[in-house]
Every structure is written in C-alpha cells, then in structure tokens.
C-alpha cells in the first residue's frame, strides 16, 4: 500500500460543497461581507475572492497548462503563496459580491470537469507538501487537498458571520480523512522500532480512526488495529481547526486526550494540513 493509505475520491462532492458555499454567500448582508475572518487582514469578501483565485489558478494550470506567477529570488513556497494570494485578493476588492458569486457559479463546473478527467492514481499535478516532501503525491491526494481548502474556507466564512453549516458527515468526513494523511509526515522526525504504531482518533459524526506505522525506515499510513505505542483523540471540530491552525497547538492540546509515547503524542498534536 502507498505510504498515503487507500485512495479517497472526493470528486462527487465538489458541486455539493460549492452549492452550500453559494447559498451561504447569497444569504449575506452587505455588513456580513465586510466582517473579519480568521485569516489575518481578510474579510469575508477577501476570502470569497481567494476561493475564486483557487478556481482560476487550477483551471489555468491543470486545464490550460499556464505556469502562472514566477517565484521571486530566494522566495519560499509559503512566501510565494502568501504574496500571490494577497495580490489577487487586493485586486479583487474592485469586484462586487454579486460578481464574485457569479464567477464562482460559472467557473465551478469547469473545474469539476478538470477533476473528473484526473487519473487519481497517477502522480499529482501539484504535490501535497504537508503529506510528504520526498515522494510524489498521488492525484487523488492533490484533488482531496483542493476539496479540503474549499470546505475550510466555507467554514471560515460561516465562523465570521455566525452561520453554522456544512458539517454533515457527507461533506466533512472526507476533509478529516484527507487531513489524517498528514500523520506520517507529522511523525517524520521520530524513528522507532519496526512496526511501532501511532493512532489518531477523531470523535463526532464525521470522525474516524487512523494509524501510522514505522515500516521499512519511515512512517506510513496503515489500517488501524492492534496495540498502539501512542494514542491521541480529539473531537472533529478541534481536529480540523488544529490541522489548519484555526487554533494553536497549545489550545488543541488542552482539548485532546493522549496516552503512550510522549514524543509521538506531542508530535501528533502539531499536525498541519496546510502550507505554512
């Protein structure tokens, strides 16, 4: 089995997640569009524009073969993304909320067609750096990463305007499933005897249980079962917010239960599933 675990196909969920986002945006008042979000310096309008940027960037790259903005000298990937995302968001402040929604409506199905044509088991067009840096990501993980990004941004808008939703298991469970694939990379600095297992358990309707095992010189996703050397459990809200740094590591640790190998449990509570 791949170090990333079994394939997860999120492609049928994009239209459903997008419709939930469009319904949410369509319900907002002018004051709501100006509300601050958890993303520093960005309001709801900016966050919606960032989602539009994601649509346009992936259509331009995956469909049209356009390389996009170039890296500045000595610019790291996080710095590049921060710069180019901010450039787009600033320019998009000229767009009305109505136009943002219309563009999302029009471009979303075109992006769905790009995902539908993907070979999920072939190497990804864009590697998922928070899952591995020395092994090519499979296509399904790249597509799954994009789904998690759209879902998380919808939740950030909901938080900003105090409108819950989008957390039904059909939409949320695949997000947690993809985020859990960061577990081997999270543990990478901790060599252990062959067969050592670390378990992550997430409670809630969308939750689940995932394991990483040390095999053949690295951590790999593995089907849960048997005795674990380390076990960390938390609720589903804590998990997705930790993975995206909507809450900090110390706050997350105050919410989790951990047992076993303290180095492994400490590492597991730093799990990160975004580029930062």
Please provide a written account of the structure.
With 276 residues, this protein is an alpha+beta fold. The protein folds into two domains: 11-166, Up-down Bundle (Four Helix Bundle (Hemerythrin (Met), subunit A)); 181-268, SCP2 sterol-binding domain (Nonspecific Lipid-transfer Protein, Chain A, 2-Layer Sandwich), CATH 3.30.1050.10. Helix content is 48%, strand content 11%. The chain has helices spanning 14-26, 30-33, 44-63, 77-92, 97-116, 139-161, 169-179, 183-186, 236-243, 249-255, 262-268; strands at 197-203, 208-215, 218-222, 230-235, 257-260. The chain is globular. 37% of the residues are buried.
Map the helices and strands.
Blueprint: H1 14-26, H2 30-33, H3 44-63, H4 77-92, H5 97-116, H6 139-161, H7 169-179, H8 183-186, E1 197-203, E2 208-215, E3 218-222, E4 230-235, H9 236-243, H10 249-255, E5 257-260, H11 262-268
Parallel strand pairs: 1-4
Antiparallel strand pairs: 1-2, 2-3, 4-5
């Amino acid at each position: 089995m791949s170090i990333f675990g079994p394939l997860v196909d999120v492609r049928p969920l994009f239209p459903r997640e997008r419709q939930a986002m469009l319904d949410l945006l369509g319900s907002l008042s002018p004051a709501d569009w100006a509300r601050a979000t958890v993303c520093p310096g960005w309001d709801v309008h900016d966050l919606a524009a960032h989602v539009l940027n994601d649509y346009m960037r992936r259509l331009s790259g995956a469909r049209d073969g356009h390389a996009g903005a170039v890296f500045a000298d000595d610019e790291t990937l996080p710095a590049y993304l921060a710069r180019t995302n901010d450039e787009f968001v600033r320019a998009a402040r000229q767009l009305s909320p109505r136009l943002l929604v219309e563009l999302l409506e029009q471009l979303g199905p075109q992006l769905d067609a790009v995902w539908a044509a993907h070979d999920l088991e072939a190497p990804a067009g864009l590697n998922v750096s928070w899952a591995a840096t020395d092994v090519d990501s499979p296509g399904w993980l790249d597509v799954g990463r994009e789904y998690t990004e759209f879902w998380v941004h919808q939740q950030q808008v909901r938080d900003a305007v105090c409108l819950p939703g989008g957390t039904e298991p059909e939409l949320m469970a695949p997000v947690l499933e993809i985020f859990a694939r960061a577990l081997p990379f999270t543990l990478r600095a901790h060599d252990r005897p062959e067969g050592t297992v670390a378990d992550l358990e997430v409670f809630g309707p969308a939750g689940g249980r995932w394991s990483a095992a040390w095999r053949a010189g690295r951590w790999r996703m593995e089907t849960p079962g048997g005795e674990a050397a380390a076990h960390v459990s938390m609720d589903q809200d804590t998990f997705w917010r930790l993975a995206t740094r909507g809450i900090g590591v110390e706050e997350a640790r105050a919410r989790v239960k951990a047992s076993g190998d303290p180095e492994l449990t400490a590492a597991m509570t730093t799990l990160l599933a975004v580029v930062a």
